[in-house]
Amino acid sequence: MFTVEKGLIIWTAISFLILLFLLSKFALKPLLEMMQKREDTIKNSLETAERTRLEAEKLLREYEAQVANASTEAQQIIAQGKKIAEDMKNDIVEKAQQEADKLISKAKSTIEHEREEALNELKNKVADLAVDIASKLIEKPLNTKEHYRLIDKYISEVPEFHEN
Fold it and tell me: Are 150 and 131 in contact (CB under 8 A)?
């Protein structure tokens, strides 16, 4: 069944050694170089990936800091806007109050002036009326001196009527 042939074993061993020699001479070195290149490529890729990851983390931290700063700045801008709006409101209210005070003062002044004019006109009419009544009572015309004396008398009495 199974027989061992010495010639076949020797030729197989010689073929194997020749093949081994040829492979080591021509194929092993390029194969090892290719494997070394592949190992270097993988190592470089891993290093690049690590550098990229670290840079990404750094950029993320910077971005988060910028977002925090932007949020703080936005809050400051909002606070400033509110303060400016409040100041403007206060200025508008103050100016409106000043204008109202001026209008009230002017109205009071105008009313007082018109009151004085009305009183003067009333005094003059009362004086004329008094002279007319006195003339009719006396039935004689008054001379200028008596006329002015009666006017002064009635004028001095008019404020007393006004106060009562």
Answer: yes
* CA-based radius of gyration for the chain: 61
Whether 52 is in a domain gets the answer yes
pTM beyond 0.85: the answer is no
Residue 18 in domain: no
What range does the domain containing 56 cover? 44-163
Q: Which residues of the chain have pLDDT under 50?
A: 164
Place of tokens 């008596």: 146
Cβ atoms of 150 and 134 within 8 Å: the answer is: yes
CB neighbour list of residue 131: distance below 8 Å, 6 or more residues apart: 142, 147, 150, 151
- Is residue 82 in a domain? yes
**Count of domains in the chain?**
1
pLDDT at 164: 47
Q: 126: Cβ–Cβ under 8 A, 6 or more apart, which residues?
A: 154, 155, 158
Look at residue 142 in the predicted model and tell me its pLDDT.
62
